[in-house]
Q: What sequence folds into this?
């Protein structure tokens, strides 16, 4: 029969309410989002009025250097592929950022 050599005590009930600092932030906090969109006016029978395809939605990093590198990466992608646009929006979630960017790019 295997014997456990781990002698760490189980967590106390009062410690169960506190999350470690490395946990994912679950609250919806307004942040900056980079949205990369294809504005090549692709018509489909299912969406005849849809002219913008969203390629990527990414939350900007909190560290300024990393945020600048993200922005540079997205800007280089827009230069490489014709018909793409980079939109920077403030939103509380990636879904809201996508909706705002689509509204901005379709003038709606």
A:
């Amino acid at each position: 029969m295997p014997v456990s050599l781990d002698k760490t005590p189980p967590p106390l009930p009062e410690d169960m309410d506190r999350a470690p600092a490395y946990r994912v932030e679950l609250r919806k906090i307004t942040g900056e989002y980079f949205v990369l969109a294809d504005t090549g006016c692709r018509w489909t029978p299912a969406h005849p009025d849809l002219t913008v395809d969203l390629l990527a939605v990414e939350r900007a990093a909190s560290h300024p250097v990393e945020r600048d590198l993200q922005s540079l990466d997205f800007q280089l992608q827009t230069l490489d592929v014709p018909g793409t646009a980079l939109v920077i929006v403030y939103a509380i979630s990636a879904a809201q950022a996508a909706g705002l960017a689509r509204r901005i790019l379709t003038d709606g």
